[in-house]
Amino acid sequence: MQGWTSYREGFFLYETAKKCSGRGVIVEIGSWKGRSTVCLGLGSLAGNKVKIYAIDPHTGSPDHIASHPGEKIWTFKEFKENMKNAGVDNVVEPLLKASDEAAQIWKEPIEFLYLDVNYHDYELSKNDLADWSKHVIDGGTIAIHNTYPDLRAIIFENQPLFGWPGPRRVLKEFVFGSKNFKNIGIVSNITYATKCNQNTFLDRLRGRLTQLKGFFSLFALKIYLILVQLPQPVKKFVKRLLFRAKN
């Protein structure tokens, strides 16, 4: 299925959805053709069958629209087919609205929020977090896609998971060091955290260490982009080293 969800991200989404207790629903902002939605759906079915709201106008993200002027984008038909073929259509409820439109009418508590809109833009990313995080219950999970690069996915899965400055700036300003998030971690291109009323100093320190991990992934990406300009034999040697490190 076409999409930009790596294998490790898919497993994370599956496991997090599976662990949801039902104190709130699962919300995905940005579904496209449903690759990540299927992971959420399968996890929910393996767990407590928590309802998943897949919010997407299916007319393309602002970035997609800007890069494809004049192109008519409509992915909802394929999305529905993918949900049915995966057997998750009974737990997935699509909502054909943009993120800001859906946020204006939203009232339900959320146990797992996945912000997967392909934004490069800082303001749009910030608004998404502000609009939706207030609905996440204490102890709920917030996950943001397109944050830090995942070299494994780039090299071995041919996934363009480079991350974007907008979401990273949002993490820096509103998540890392915040008193309202703990258990911050990075899985592939996703950064996630548990919402809380008040974390501890140790929680904030761990958050900063995770931020440092993200910084090193950016540094590794810069090195990789230099290496890909090297002659083919050298690139093959480097790839073998990375493969050994992976295993």
Summarize the structure.
The protein has 247 residues and is of the alpha/beta class.
List descriptors.
7-stranded mixed sheet, 247 residues, Methyltransferase domain-containing protein, alpha/beta, 10 helices, Rossmann fold, globular, SAM-dependent_MTases_sf
Taking all Cα atoms into account, the compactness measure Rg is: 18 Å
CATH architecture: 3-Layer(aba) Sandwich
Strand segment tally: 7
The neighbouring-strand order within the major sheet is 3-2-1-4-5-7-6
Mean pLDDT: 91
Beta-strand level of the residues, as a percent range? 15-25%
Task: Kindly give the count of domains.
Answer: 1
Protein name: Methyltransferase domain-containing protein
Organism: Candidatus Giovannonibacteria bacterium RIFCSPHIGHO2_02_FULL_45_40
InterPro entries: SAM-dependent_MTases_sf
